[in-house]
């Protein structure tokens, strides 16, 4: 727009708005993307206007940045979208606040920033009328592709339940803020529900295949694994159909159902008495899996219409799965790592901006901007982002400088380079720090060239500023550490308690679908948080090996527990209909008590009591199931329950024994020396 008016420089404010708004674009329904991007554009425009109004008053400018940086740090608790909201608002103010302008220009600059963001938003959602439900289909396709990989890999109980993150992403897309409505979306929600059921069946059938192999039935185990591979072909085709907006190939699903049917016949015809329970349970779950695959094929026909059958607008019935305001409010506690991060970010951004203003450095805001982007609550992530940001920036500076030097001059050539580098930045995505930094730094070189700053003068200043910002971010995490090892125990306790709540909900006959969805989501979140916490603690340069070993122990044994609990979840409906939930409630209650004792032992850093044993209750339940299988819905269900409770018992008893082994020689203590860096 600026080049068309004969002065490309007047488009810089709009370019900044478009740039920050582009970073806010993330996968999701078009309505959500529209609201999110326009919100970021308005926020960036507002803070830009405030920054320009205060640009001739150094103290006011720094105070504004301190407040904005604190808010940006606090928004980290509400997820990536909220984090980008805070970063965009702060970054726009940081850049434009270093260009002294009269206060009368504040509104004009703010409107240009909003205009640039609005144009970026329109380009991002331009395909909405033509491909209305593309985001929903993409999220479901990713989920079904992960399920296909899980059915093919058959990793069993050595790993956690598969596709947890993809399942959460798909549910957020279909039920979260800005979700769409109509027949196609209802079909997508059916596909989501079926995917969750298929996920449980895959876990259960894989564990039964392992058990058949352990019982020296390699042929039957191989047939079961072959059926899972056949199911994977259907799931792959479902993913491809969702990507393309077409119906599933009926031939693929028919072949898979024939394979599963043959395996079921072989399982039922076998005369191997020792494995009779396992065979019956496996046949029952394979029949359920076959029915679910058939339901997926049928539901995909409506979803493939992509809204062309006349969408009916209905009032939304879902609720937000995560309340950002509640998350931010919860992190206002003094012991919150996010609150400490917000305070640290505000201090270092404000201090660095004060120093560059006092030194009179041109474009010294790059130091604070780097701090804003790379600083995170934990050391490992901060170090990684700092290194990638620095390397990407240096490479981008070199590439852009050479291009500006060799290409002909003129605003239109510069505009073309802006388009190329902006495309590269959007293509890389916000999660890929190094590639994004390459395109972003190159884009900045071209924008400054438009403003009259020679490209070669930019290289050294920008490289040094980025290096300084990255180094300051790492030093800030070392000077004011929030070592992840301090939070490992807390997250492990949350995981064990979430699993206890899940088991209690599964065996409670009054549990409705909403409660089940809530406890399942809580388990996935708790496991993700615990795994990430252990991984970050292992990467820290402090002595946190006891916490890491504890975390890996709990995660390894809880893998087996949750696989077994998912088996109970998979047979919950026939159990409930037969009145069998009451039969397993005493065992589940005792298992919940053991989980509570384990959580207390982890939290108090003491060994769990020896009385936390579950085997006697499981043996009593097994005897009941063996003698009266009809009380829980028949032999197939009885076998599944017996197998699941046996694995629950084994996993929890093993975890009790392992924690006693770790804790009895020397209780886990947070010694003062643990905070010291490890010798290299």
Automatic annotation (TrEMBL):
Membrane topology annotation: Multi-pass membrane protein
Compositionally skewed regions (Basic and acidic residues) per UniProt: 306-318
Spans through the membrane: 34-55, 62-85, 105-128, 386-406, 433-451, 463-483
Cell compartment(s), UniProt: Cell membrane
UniProt keyword list: Cell membrane, Membrane, Transmembrane, Transmembrane helix
The Integral membrane bound transporter domain, residue ranges: 356-475
Family stated for the protein in its record: Belongs to the YccS/YhfK family.
Name of the molecule in the record: Uncharacterized membrane protein YccC
